[in-house]
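In response to reviewer comment 3 from the previous cycle, which asked for concrete evidence that the modeling workflow produces usable outputs, we include below a single protein chain processed end to end. The sequence was submitted unchanged, and the resulting structure tokens are shown without manual editing.
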Amino acid sequence: MQRSCRARPGASTVGAAQPRLPTRRGADVAEETHAALGAGERPGELVRRTRQARGMTLAQLGERAGYSAAQVSRYERGVAPMNDVDVRGAFADALELPREAFGLLTPMPRPEIRHGQAIGAPAAFPRVPAHKVGRPGQEDGEDPVRRRKLLANLAWTAAAAATSPLGPSHSLPADEALLGDVLVAKLRDAMLGLGGPPSVPSTQVLEGDFARARADFDACHYAGLALRLPRLIRAGHALTAAPGGDEGCERLAQTYLIATRMLVKLDEQQLGWMAADRARQLAETSGNVLTIAESARQLAVLARKAGWHDQALSIALTAADDPGLRDAGREGAAERGLLIQSAAYTVARRGDRDGMRQLTDEAAAIATELGGAPLLRGHGGGFSLITVQLHRISAENYAGDPLAALTAARSISLNELPSLERRSRGLGDIALALERLGRRSECVRTLLAAERCAPQEAHARPAVKSLVSGLLVSGPVSPELRGLAERSGVLV
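The workflow returned the following structure tokens.
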């Protein structure tokens, strides 16, 4: 008895010429097809009638569809039902009919598989005209009382940034919790072209300002960033708007990347999207493959925070496989590692613990091969084996395994992390794991250690405030917790 299954390719067709379908009646067949569907014609009847209209034998159609002549006959007579979508699709393709003729939807494009993860098909990043700084003005609907309060704090900010060291030893005023609001307000106005005409200092002054802004980020010095980042953005746009201004696009792109990282920290996603998109546009103009990849990473972070996990994964893994990074030496490999780390974090937020660990191990393998001190220090703290392990703490937390997060934390020395910002981040992640395990007193002690490490980060960052607020309402409040809440501006 002949088996009713698809014939093996080439099993009975060696030396046989593929039949050519006559095209004379193609349009007529399509019209008849839609009419037949409307009349409720069986799929087998449609196959038989179309085959005969095309002048094909059972064997010829079977050769094209991958079935024996006997099985084609069974389908046509209804002895074998054509319920399987693969069967219907095979005959639609063999008869050159639209798949809709057999009640099938047009197939969706198959996802690409990168690093063991299915992602959407990549496309070129859209290009739009460059942003120009507008005339000064006031944003509609802004609360004037709140604006006056923020501007009053900015006066202190300017003085503090001008007179204090960049390190964490600076003592803060009582209203330090508003520093995040100050920074957001000043970035917003600079990005919207508000706040007066920009001054354009010399290249040397701009380079010094940018270096100090990067140091401010590493030291979690929000006061300095509130002063310098808006000034750099205004000056950068003024330079890029001038004739031959494309040379300033790379520096402005990197400035926007620092701004994006801060806006992500401060949960300001709307402004974060604007900053990240501008960074990507400017990076594309400058052509620096590392800056292009880093701006893609920040866009992936924002997509993840918006809950668009599939899109975040596609952005990160597509950027990681850019051939340009493979041609960029050790720094290109480090950026690849950062992008794979970002993808791992996204997979963790999606609840795929195994996928997260697989991607994190891949990033760790890249870091091990590179060895040595962190590379790309300006890209949010850099990339090395210890920063991968730091990332693992947070990823395990969000994959739902705080014990694994603490295990990862015990494998590193926080003092070996490349910046105060990274150490503060590590302490925050450890505190979150302790809180999820119900170890309140240890959690509070860890938060206090984070405050000593980077006071402005501990007092102004919403994630820390949220953790402190949760501790206040979930159990007894110690004097130490109450004091931290007061310094962070959390209602007690």
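The chain has a mean pLDDT of 82. We consider this sufficient to address the reviewer's concern, and the full set will be provided in the supplementary archive.
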